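Study this pair:
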Amino acid sequence: MTQKEKAELFLKLHHDKEVLVIMNSWDPGSSKLIEASGFKAIGTTSMGVSASLGYPDCEAIQFTEMLQAIKRIADKITLPLTVDIEGGFGNSTMEIVKNIKQIIETGVVGINLEDSVKLNPELLEVAEFMERISAIRKLSDSLGIHLVINARTDSFLTSSGSADSRLAESIKRGKRYIEAGADCIFVPNVTDAKSISELVKGIAAPVNILANPTNGTALPPALKELEDMGVARLSVGSTLMKSTLTLMKKVADETQRTGTYNNLLEAVSPIEETLKAYKMATDTPEN
């Protein structure tokens, strides 16, 4: 399948009745395991990629290293790949577009782009973020590939104010971002059914909901309920990476504290499943 065909397929998946579930990976092995597990697309977690290379989140990693990490993943999988690029690793629309051109050249067919700057409580002005989206869409069109833009608004993640005011701000921004050329609106930290339903109805375009209890938030409703509400996409963000690190810490702490290996044994049991997962993460998928 060509990059153009993957992009078209990925866009279509946002308009199916079934919720598009994105398990977020951070390296080729985790990406290949997700692919072999039967998912329809793969997304990266910026926090996970950064942590795997020894950096904190929020664009502490250099763009060149993030780009190399993305290319390593893209080279090992066949599914449509969308990548979390935080704010775009640039201070201007021109810099961000230049970076995204390089990302598209790796074979990627989608991006997450957020309207906060390193999770600063002050969000970008709507007009400025719309300009960035429009410029990315223009770039995408010029390359003959419909890059799927998942525009993230951080009204609930960083802003203060009442839940109602943040919901209204998310809907307002979402509608404007769609006008500018975004394909989907990502609103992290909204998990209650009422707010999710209002988001979907208010934005009237594909909406991405996050399941990430490690942010200290509740989990959203089950997939069937989200589907009935009209949610287009669900992602797990950094949760898989964090849970992997949590297991490593439990094993290390137990070994240091008691000299026993119970957590290690539990993690790899049954061994047949562990070996199967290893094979999934290391076998080369067929094109």
Q: What stands out?
A: The chain is about 50% helix and 10% strand. The chain has one domain: 3-237.
